[in-house]
């Protein structure tokens, strides 16, 4: 009865507490009426161009090599297309507007609240901006123009040569935005090739027909390749020629697309504004915004300014070894005060029969850095390929993960033993009527002859339950979260197991990190898309690769 009264008081107290708290609707609690976000659209970044084998119109086995041969030739001619131009890119994700009179997108609001985040304005954020861009009411730099899509060439020549009527099904099956199929027929000494270019997004096809001599078919396919290329570019192109006087093999990029090494000639590129970038190690990068005009050769001579070595590096090793800074050969150890460029880079010390040593180098102008390296016998490729494995095929990451799983298992056992301890007391409770002095007095008054046996039995039940409960609790231990009043901590096997596994997880994680995996280098732009989120702004880099 006493317990029932206490329970009723507790429930009544909870009701009073909850009713005293002001209640809010979901909108009020999260302040939805005060918030507003401007919607925006993430447009597609690339499209897949799938090329299939060509279907012969005759069963002459003598010409079976053309089934894949024609496809291979077309793929070779289209391989240097890095991106295409489309007026209406597909939306990838659409974020709808929310609230009254929204002025900023959710990302812009988050960027404003984040001090360390890099603010990036989304110039083409929705269909209205895209329409203005197509109508020349709005302009943007090529890197942020969603109409420039990365061109992904996919070769599916191992598939049975399809008919052009199967293009729609093929596009869905192989996730193709464009499907190139075709057939060929041989008549005498001539080869007639019919090509169908199916556009999955528009739902239409372009048909091409080209006749060549059978003997020189591969050499005479260029006009057909040019027609397909013009269709894929989506707009008119012009010829680009870039030269770098007195310097060879400089890397040339337009809109982040690698065109080749200078001197560059007879490279076709879509007309319009573009970002030119020319780079060669040891020289300062060259950047320029250019305007490619219709039917006008774009020819530019770029003079790269050589970087001046303004820092110094000294390297010693336990063996005479070759020393490289990036890809530049500095000489053999020991090196004393060698002039090198300032900035971040990677040092490599190499000798046959020894494991290559890599060190990060960061030099200020006029600074000298001394590095001592200890080479170890072994094979470089085998060591760096397998160094993450510490036991058979298991790495420190694996052991760290296993330790976390072990901590969870010990915690599950901890919960179980606590539950079993409580159940031991609960199981004995119905068998015990000796709860206070009044029960003891009443039983003795009513049953004096049975009192001793009853009293012994009651104590025996209590002692057994207490011993079993304590034994189980001793195995489990006690965590501070269990007893919030005095934050008691009792070390039991399960609690010890949890702690040991967590310490092991942290230890293995720390062991998986070493100095060899800090990599600093100086490299050119390597992105091929035109989206600003994928472009790099710097050519020096530092990356930390743990053994994980």
Structure write-up:
With 548 residues, the chain is an alpha+beta fold. It is built from 12 helices and 27 strands. It has helices spanning 2-20, 26-29, 65-78, 106-113, 127-134, 167-174, 222-233, 380-386, 396-428, 437-446, 451-476, 493-511; strands at residues 40-43, 46-52, 55-56, 83-85, 91-95, 148-156, 178-187, 190-199, 204-213, 237-243, 251-254, 257-261, 264-270, 272-279, 286-292, 298-301, 311-317, 322-325, 328-332, 335-340, 343-350, 357-363, 368-373, 389-391, 394-395, 518-522, 540-544. The strands form 8 sheets. Strands 2, 3, 4, 6, 7, 8 and 9 form a 7-stranded mixed beta sheet that branches. A 4-stranded antiparallel beta sheet has the order 12-11-14-15, with no helix packed on it. A 4-stranded antiparallel beta sheet has the order 19-18-21-22, with no helix packed on it. A hairpin with a 2-residue loop joins β11 (251-254) and β12 (257-261). It starts with a helix and ends with a strand. The model is unreliable at 517-548 (pLDDT under 50).
Attribute tags:
548 residues; alpha+beta; 4-stranded antiparallel sheet; 12 helices; 27 strands; 29% strand; disordered C terminus
């Amino acid at each position: 009865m006493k317990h029932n009264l206490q329970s009723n008081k507790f429930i009544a107290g909870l009701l009073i507490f909850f009713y005293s708290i002001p209640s809010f609707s979901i909108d009020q609690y999260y302040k939805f009426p005060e918030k507003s976000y401007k919607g925006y659209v993430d447009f597609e970044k690339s499209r897949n161009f799938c090329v299939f084998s060509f279907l012969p119109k005759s069963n002459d086995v003598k010409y079976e090599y053309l089934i894949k041969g024609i496809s291979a030739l077309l793929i070779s001619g289209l391989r240097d297309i890095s991106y295409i131009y489309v007026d209406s890119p597909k939306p990838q994700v659409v974020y709808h507007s929310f609230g009254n009179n929204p002025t900023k997108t959710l990302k812009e609001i988050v960027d404003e609240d984040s001090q360390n985040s890099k603010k990036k304005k989304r110039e083409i954020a929705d269909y209205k901006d895209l329409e203005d861009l197509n109508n020349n009411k709005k302009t943007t730099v090529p890197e942020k123009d969603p109409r420039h899509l990365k061109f992904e060439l996919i070769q599916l020549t191992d598939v049975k040569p399809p008919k052009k009527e199967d293009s729609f099904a093929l596009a869905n099956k192989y996730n193709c935005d464009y499907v190139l199929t075709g057939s060929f027929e041989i008549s005498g000494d001539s080869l007639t090739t019919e090509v169908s270019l199916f556009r999955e997004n528009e739902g239409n096809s372009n048909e091409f027909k080209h006749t060549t001599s059978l003997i020189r078919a591969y050499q005479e396919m260029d006009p057909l390749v040019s027609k397909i290329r013009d269709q894929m570019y989506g707009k008119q192109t012009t010829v680009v020629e870039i030269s770098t006087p007195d310097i060879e093999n400089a890397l040339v990029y337009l809109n982040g697309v690698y065109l080749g090494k200078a001197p560059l000639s007879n490279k076709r590129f879509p007309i319009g504004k573009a970002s030119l970038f020319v780079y060669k190690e040891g020289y300062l990068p060259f950047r320029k915004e250019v305007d490619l005009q219709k039917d006008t050769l774009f020819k530019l001579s770029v003079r790269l300014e050589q970087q001046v070595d303004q820092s110094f590096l000294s390297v010693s090793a336990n063996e005479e070894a070759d020393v490289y800074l990036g890809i530049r050969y500095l000489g053999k150890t020991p090196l004393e005060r060698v002039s090198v460029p300032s900035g971040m880079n990677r040092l490599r010390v190499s000798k046959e029969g020894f494991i290559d040593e890599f060190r990060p180098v960061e030099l200020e102008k006029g600074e000298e850095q001394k590095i001592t390296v200890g080479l170890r016998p072994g094979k470089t490729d085998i060591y760096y390929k397998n160094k993450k494995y510490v036991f058979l095929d298991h790495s420190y990451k694996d052991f760290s993960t296993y330790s976390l799983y072990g901590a969870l298992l010990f915690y599950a056992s901890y919960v179980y033993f606590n539950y079993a301890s409580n159940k031991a007391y609960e199981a004995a409770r119905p068998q015990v009527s000796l709860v206070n002095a009044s029960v003891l007095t009443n039983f003795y008054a009513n049953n004096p002859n049975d009192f001793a046996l009853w009293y012994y039995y009651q104590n025996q039940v209590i002692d057994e339950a207490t011993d079993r409960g304590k034994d189980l609790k001793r195995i489990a231990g006690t965590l501070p979260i269990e007893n919030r009043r005095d934050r008691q901590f009792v070390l039991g096997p399960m609690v010890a197991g949890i702690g040991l596994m967590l310490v092991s997880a942290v230890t293995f994680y720390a062991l998986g990190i070493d100095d060899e995996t800090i990599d600093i280098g100086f490299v050119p732009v390597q992105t091929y898309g035109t989206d600003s989120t994928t472009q790099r702004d710097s050519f020096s880099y530092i990356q930390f690769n743990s053994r994980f």
